[in-house]
Amino acid sequence: MIRNAEKNIHLLNHARIRALDDLEKILHEKEVLQGEINILETKLAETDARLRVAAQEKIHVELLEDQLEKLRNELSSRNSSEELVYNVNNSLPFSQSNDVNSYSEEFDVWKTENISLKNELQALKTQLFNLKKTDERVQILEEERISLESSLKELEFKFSASQEDVSNISSLKAECKNLYEKVEHLQQLLENATKQADQAILALQQNQELRKKVDQLEKSLEEANVYKLSSEKMQQYNELMQQKIQILDERLQRSDEEIESYVQLYQNSMKEFQDTLTNLKEESKKRLRDDTVNEMPSEFWSRLLLMIDGWFLEKKVSAEDAMLLRDMIWKRDGSIHNAYMSSKEKTERETIATFLRLTSSTSSPRLHVIHIAAEMAPVAKVGGLGDVVTGLSKALQKKGHLVEIVLPKYDCARYQLVQDLKALNVPVESYFDGRLYKNKIWTGTVEGLPVYFIEPQHPGNFFWRGQFYGENDDFKRFSFFSRAALELLLQVGKKPDIIHCHDWQTAFVAPLYWDLYVAKGLNSARICFTCHNFEYQGTAPATELASCGLDVYHLNRPDRMQDNSAQDRINPIKGAIVFSNIVTTVSPTYAQEVRSAEGGQGLHATLHSHSKKFVGILNGIDTEAWNPATDNFLKVQYNAYDIEGKAENKEDLRRCLRLSSRDVRRPLVGCITRLVPQKGVHLIRHAIYRTLELGGQFVLLGSSPVPHIQKEFEDIANHFQSHEHVRLILKYDESLSHLIYAATDMLTIPSIFEPCGLTQMIAMRYGSIPIARKTGGLNDSVFDVDDDAIPIQYRNGFTFLTADEQGFNNALERAFYLYKNNIDGWKQLVQKVMGVDFSWESSAALYEELYAKSVARARATKRA
Ligand SMILES: Nc1ncnc2c1ncn2[C@@H]1O[C@H](COP(=O)(O)OP(=O)(O)O)[C@@H](O)[C@H]1O
Hints:
Layout: H1 2-81, H2 88-91, H3 103-161, H4 166-295, H5 298-313, H6 319-330, H7 334-342, H8 348-363, E1 368-372, H9 384-398, E2 402-408, E3 419-423, E4 428-432, E5 435-446, E6 449-456, H10 474-492, E7 498-502, H11 503-507, H12 509-520, E8 526-531, E9 540-541, H13 552-555, E10 562-563, E11 566-570, H14 572-579, E12 582-585, H15 588-593, H16 604-609, E13 614-616, H17 644-656, E14 668-674, H18 681-693, E15 697-703, H19 707-719, E16 726-729, H20 734-743, E17 746-749, H21 759-765, E18 769-773, H22 776-781, E19 798-800, H23 805-821, H24 823-834, H25 841-863
Helix pairs in contact: 1-4, 3-4, 5-6, 6-25, 7-8, 9-25, 10-12, 12-14, 17-20, 18-23
The chain binds adenosine-5'-diphosphate.
């Protein structure tokens, strides 16, 4: 094995190295791809930056355009006042458009403008040249003026010198005046010429600035054009990049997925590798431990035994704990060896505490429980038994126990509710009527529970009858099944701690187990038997017991299986009470009732003599299957905090059943039951009429295995066939039952006796107030709202004691009164009952305790 393991490790190491190589390659490829993406992303960022610069340049160009516009305006205003400036305004087109696309057109215009400006400049230069010439003329004139002035002075001198020459004075004065006028005119000309020259110089300067700006504009425009071109390119490039990035992303994702799958493979193989390694380590550790434990000398174990005996005698440990510890010592249990070794330095008290921890962990072990039953909800359900098998099993499974169920393979079961149903290849042979019969074994899961279905290959076609019970050969059918179930457990090699059988149909399991199967090797179990109803005992002529291999002579005795009221009859229920380790029934009150002669159905004496192992545990309900907040059968889901949906379900059911919907507040009363005398059929019938009289509506869902009761109710159903306030549906209908629980305001359960009853609990879960007789399980779960002896928080319905019409009327009328006169009070009651915990949680814990105690007792007895 070790060599195999080493080989496996070697193989796994190879696989691991290969996986690591692959992983490295993929990681490298991923890195390269990531690098490419980084470069592309940088380029993209650069492109973005350039686009931003282009946008800024665009804004800049717009600013320049504004300035140009202003300059143009200035020039045009100047042009209007001075002839030296050309008509710039007309020759410069102006585009208001900010669109970069119009830059080239504008550029052309600006070029034209520029040329005209150049021409203007040339003209101005010519003018300047002319002005220079004028300057020269002015110079000449100045010189002339100077010479004239000097000649004037000469003349003045001559005038003063020849004052006497009066005759010439007037002509000289006139000449002088003439000369003055000429000089003034020349001065005027000179001033004008100077002004014009200044203006021309200014215009020249402005023109040069303008030129510079135009040059700048041209440059900006060119740049803008370049950017425009490049931005278009960039955009294309960008798109290309995006596509590339997308492709790369996809590739990256694919490679990520690949990596993941490789990693997964790698992890799986690593896990496998680790598991194998851990197992090997554990095994070798255990071997080492076992070796150490086994190597301990017998003196060691004897010393331990004596120590436990001492503790027991000194009353330091209980008899039960002492027995468990002794058992562990005999079995050379490693844990007790370790406990002792670890306590070497401890005080005696500490050592005892360490040892007791071992017994407490063995007193609540995980148990292997196998139910052998005739019903299991929802696949094969007739009544409460089916609900209990599923509900209890689910609750025990939730608590960590291994729970399995063995059922007959009925032709009428709902196999669509079984997951992975398949037949096993190998049949299981079981004994019946002196020979072996093959059984086809089917497996599947129901509500998450593993189930075995047994299909007998017997000519009697035991489970091909179209119904679960009620056949003439029921005794044969179920005694055959009980034996085949045990045979299955034996042949499959099961070692259950508890075999739990239910009702008379599988009560045979208890005597079969002890009388036949323990000897065959199926000997690990304790037998638990639950009687769901003592009314059905399955008695039969004693001889019939032989068919399943039981010894009639040995069992048909008053202290064994003989029926208490007929010596020639065998009573399977009595057999189960006698041969089981644990006997339970389904409520404490019923357990009490059946101990009495009135309620015991002939078995009170038997129960009395086995009272130590007999206990009543109230059933729970499967709160997952029965939950108005998630119930898919309902039109509207609702809960205790939001009960509006209940009214909608009422409305819906009325419509479906063709009942009047006129008065929303008309109370709807329901009854869901098997129509058998136990259920108080005469009170159910009375309830229909009384409800009508009180102004309510009544819905009955039920069927009867008793022909005259079925007939009686068919007549009532026909009578009310098209009545607007009464409807009777005489069949078994699971989905309709959900609708009725949700729609009704009240549910009647007027049972004469009721082992537990589930309908009152389901009704409450759906906010339908129970009107129940105080008997059996009803007495343990329905508490009258007007009963002062009950703490107010527990009051949840209307009850009556005497099983007559008056008793029933009283409860029904009080319910109607509250419903009609105290709407809020009724609503509060509805919400309160919806919150009552009827789950299996606490009841399953009681079963668990019973199982564990029984298993511990068995172990202790074995040791003794
Ligand atoms: N006609 C019917 N259609 C559907 N479900 C029914 C019908 N009659 C009874 N039931 C269901 O069977 C179960 C009855 O359980 P219980 O009250 O313990 O009565 P019993 O086991 O005596 O029949 C409930 O789940 C109830 O809803």
